[in-house]
Amino acid sequence: MEGVSEPVPPRLRHVLRAAALEHALSERRFTHRPLLHVGLPGRDHELLPADDGEPMDHALRTDVVAAALARARRAVPQPLAWITRTGDLVAEDVDLVWLAACRQAFAEADTPLTYVVVNRHGWRDPRSGVERHWTRLRRR
Predict the structure, then answer these.
(1) Residue 140: inside a domain, yes or no?
(2) Is the pTM of this model over 0.85?
(3) Domain range holding 38?
(4) Which residues have a Cβ under 8 Å from the Cβ of 42 and sit 6 or more positions away?
(5) What backbone phi and psi angles, to 5 degrees, belong to 135?
(6) Domain annotation covers residue 2
(7) What is the mean pLDDT of residues 60-72?
């Protein structure tokens, strides 16, 4: 099976919680455009608008992810990819088109892909359905 599986390894669980916490603390608006992140939350990561209104096809999205991945790999040995957005964590079109691009770019770079969708209350892997939610996410 592709994606994050149960039980979630402690290190990955900590990193994905950090992604949700970082998003909750940094984004105060109730609605905002989705953003694609490549790297590690709380550390070096590349940030890309996932829906900037410009038409993009699969090949162009893959090239954008590949460039972000190449930059992220300079600082992080095994980068992750995650989308931050508003709304529930059910799969939306923006999640799936960027998942396809990430899948292709990470495969071409021979790098394992961890891809999740993050909102201010948790995260979800659209491939496996594994998710975590917090009522009130706080720093520990």
Answers:
(1) no
(2) yes
(3) 10-133
(4) 18, 22
(5) -70, -45
(6) no
(7) 94
CATH at residue 34: 3.40.140
- Spatial separation of the C-alpha atoms in residues 4 and 63, rounded to whole Å: 24
- What is residue 33's predicted lDDT score, i.e. its pLDDT? 84
For residue 96, tell me if it sits in a domain. yes
- The string of pLDDT tens digits covering residues 79-98 is 999 999 988 999 999 999 99
Which residues is 133 bridged to in the sheet?
122
DSSP characters for the chain? --S--SSPPHHHHHHHHHHHHHHHHH---SS---EEEEE-TTS-EEEEES--SS---HHHHHHHHHHHHHHHHHH-SS-EEEEE-SS-SS--HHHHHHHHHHHHHHHHTT----EEEEETTEEE-TTT--EEE-SS----
One-letter identity of residue 82: W
Domain assignment present for 20: yes
